[in-house]
Amino acid sequence: MSVKATENNVFWVIKFLKMQMNTKKLLVSFIAIMTVFCLVATVSAADFDITKVEVDGITIVDSGELLEDTIVPLTAGDTVSVEVWFTAEFYDEDVTVQIELEGNKDDTSAETRSFDVRPDRQYHKTLSIKVPYELKDELFDELTLHVEIDGADYNTENEYVLEVERPSYNTDIKSISIPQTIEAGETFPVDIVLKNIGYNDLDDLYVVVSIPELGLQRDAYFGDIVALECDEDDDEGDDNFPWTDDTLGRHCDEDDKDTVIGQLYLEVPYGVAAGVYTLEVEVGNEDTVSSAAKQIVIENDFETTVFVSGDNLWIVNPTNNVIGYRVIPESPASVSESIVFIPAGSSETIAVSPNADGAYSFDVNIFDMNSQLVKTVNFTGEAKTSTTSNPIVILTVILAIIFLVLLIVLIVLIGKKPEKSEEFGESYY
């Protein structure tokens, strides 16, 4: 109905009111006015003619008629396309096509940009929308698709019932629990909660926990998880919903669970740098793989266990076990010990000798007993030439000094004349 027709209706209603002479008739007239406006709204609500609707490539409305026998099996969690064809009856502006998938607990929606329409023209719009996932205790359910075409002056809204089911195989990592902070060298637990949110049972699930930046990884077997577990009122072999033919002949078993809790342990090396790392969890079997990640904070007061003090290496063992190291210097240097075992909570000092005169620069490599490089330390300096450090030179000097002393003594002895003996003459009286 046009705006002009509406104005005519209002005109006749007002004229009708003027003809009323008492309160009762005035009340009846007011009701008549409201009826006219309702009729106008009702007629204008169909000013967009939805001729075709496709959901995920399947036509559910064709030539304006709903195809009642058409089933669209949507998969929970997927993103699907919805295509809408419609014809405008009047000029309108700021028109949008809005769609909504409404579940029992969760809704999703999408909307096009605004555009203008002209009468007797067909329009086609495509939208993408995510299928809500709320199938906690059911394998499948129904969703309502709302399609609304809304303009500045006109509006049309229709709704259609669709079917949604769980994906065939899907594992939901419900939670990953770890300590807030972890000390380097500490072994910490990783608690994981898994739930089967797929259509089928999951057999032989494995869980892998890792910190790729540190090269850490552990795996564990979590067993089987059913798609639906028993309710308290279910009996074994009960064929009531959800245990119907649609569940592929599966029946209730009170020992089967759709949720499982497990724990793994990771050991952080002592030498890692303090910081924030990513802990990754991967769950899978032959049919599906799911993954999740969580940030982990590692603290370390001993980011290195090897220190340099002058010409000495100081190696610290902050662990609770004895640790062995191999200390390999480059030529021409040497070390006081090439293999050292350090008790728990102790340290060891190793002397490093350049064995060179003048300027020197060389590396000393420290390996663990598995031949993994722990650290490379560079020594650079200037060696002072000193003969006192050579025992042969020292002995030569001592002998030379003795020889000189003896020579001097000999010369003194030779050069010394003997004293004349006193002569006594005879005395006569």
Which term fits the overall shape?
elongated
β-strand percent reads: over 45%
Number of DSSP helical runs: 3
What's the alpha carbon Rg, rounded to whole Å? Answer: 48 Å
Q: From the coordinates shown, what is the CATH architecture of the largest domain?
A: Sandwich
What does this structure look like?
With 429 residues, this protein is mostly beta strands. Helices cover 15% and strands 47% of the residues. It has 3 helices and 27 strands. It has helices at residues 3-18, 23-44, 391-415; strands at residues 48-55, 58-62, 65-66, 73-75, 79-88, 92-102, 107-111, 115-117, 121-130, 140-150, 155-165, 171-177, 181-183, 187-196, 202-211, 216-225, 259-267, 275-284, 289-299, 306-309, 312-316, 323-329, 334-335, 339-342, 347-353, 358-368, 373-383. Strands 4, 6, 7, 8, 10 and 11 form a 6-stranded mixed sheet that branches. Strands 3-2-1-5-9 form a 5-stranded antiparallel sheet, with no helix packed on it. A 5-stranded mixed sheet has the order 13-19-18-15-16, with no helix packed on it. Strand 6 (92-102) and strand 7 (107-111) form a beta hairpin. The longest helix has 25 residues, at 391-415.
